[in-house]
Amino acid sequence: EIVLTQSPATLSVSPGERATLSCRASQSVGSKLAWFQQKPGQAPRLLISGASTRATGIPARFSGSGSGTEFTLTISSLQSEDFAVYYCQQYNNWPPWTFGQGTKVEIK
Amino acid sequence: EVQLVESGGNLVQPGGSLRLSCAASGFTFSSYEMNWVRQAPGRGLEWVSYISSSVHIIYYADSVKGRFTISRDNAKNSLFLQMNSLRAEDTAIYYCARHNYYEHYFDYWGQGVLVTVSS
Question: Residue B8 has what pLDDT?
């Protein structure tokens, strides 16, 4: 089973600033990594697939990078609606499909 | 518009059973692989079960294997999760999630349904 480790657990950022979230895999997943955003009381929403491809309707301020075992989600200029929990998910080796434990982006 | 609507959540005693449903619309349900994913209160996401479009391939997480059964009715655009021998640790919001048609990530999720296992 591939373990995904996200860091930091919590990221405090001021609106308009840049946020950088990390996801590390216990073994290579190639580019088979997705990122999700989850707001309180809501279902997860797909942001990024293939490590760097934005899903339909996702603003350009969200970008993903990386391959193998190291991945990054960058939010270039945080908006109020971006404060949420972000999860990475690997879909290279399955089952099981595995998720990171999440990074909470909070207002500084 | 893709829509996934779960139902069937409830409070159930340990050892009890529950059947969740997920009604799909806005896409050709029979062509897509589907999953159940859960989230315990205040915790992260945990994949629970997968079913192929044709029902021929099914997978379960080790934590539910032998207790949960996934199924689907393509004629009724519906996904199901039969949960038996429920434990307190099964308490969670359960989401149905659609596989992307070309890749194995989850592209659309339902709003979730709460299952509480408690005496």
Answer: 97
